[in-house]
From TrEMBL:
One of its GO terms (cellular component) is cytosol. Its EC number is 2.4.2.3. It catalyses: uridine + phosphate = alpha-D-ribose 1-phosphate + uracil. InterPro entries: DeoD-type (IPR004402), Nucleoside_phosphorylase_CS (IPR018016), Nucleoside_phosphorylase_d (IPR000845), Nucleoside_phosphorylase_sf (IPR035994). Keywords: Glycosyltransferase, Transferase. It holds the Pfam family PNP_UDP_1. This is Uridine phosphorylase. The gene is deoD. Residues 16-232 form the Nucleoside phosphorylase domain. GO terms for molecular function: purine-nucleoside phosphorylase activity; uridine phosphorylase activity. It comes from Mobiluncus curtisii ATCC 51333. Transmembrane segments: none annotated.
Amino acid sequence: MSTPHIAAEPGDFAPAVLMPGDPKRAEKIAHTLMNDAKLVTDVRSMLGFTGTYRGKPLSVMGSGMGQPSLTIYATELFKFFGVERIIRVGTCGSISAQARVGDTVVAMSAHTDSHINVARFPEITFAPCASWSLLSAAMRAVDELPEADRDRVHVGTVFSEDHFYFKVPGLLERLRAYGTLALEMETAALYGVAAELGREALTVLTVSDSLLDHSQDMTPQERETKFANALTLATAAALC
Ligand code: HPA
């Protein structure tokens, strides 16, 4: 059975899916974590893999960039492929002095300038929220990180923005004043779909750049490789 965007059979996906934005990163994660990863879908080059990690089934699939793209894949995985939990593993731009390039940000909740959840609840302000069981499993895995990195994990709110380049003047300063850690482009939608369909979701991000000081920004190559700590927390959540 195929859906418009995923050509696979229901049993082809594990109950837990790690979801980076970039399909090539999905391929790299699949082959880094698993010896037996098999390609299960490649519609529009949005690669999805399934194998076993620490003896349990695990899938990895790209989401594309932005909330509409992620929403399509997450909805189809949850509704038609038996997926129970999605853990987004991506990069983010820090707007906080605490979250430095290379650090890990775990998103408890996500503000957004998108209409994507307003469409669900025009009459109230919906609160997109991480799954507590996934979030707490990720935090228990902080002990598995190299000792020097254990205080480089930050938990809080992120801003899921629709524009990567256009910034509303003054908005980031206000979000920072309200404790927001970082910018990315998918989490508010992921948490909205999971809530709609009664499933679990979590976002674990690696800080790739800082909007406060661009001198430390990762190169495109570093963005592809420096996410080991995020993967440790994300796999712990996936298999909890
Ligand atoms: N905006 C959105 N996503 C990002 C950014 C940003 O500035 N930096 C890294 N991911």
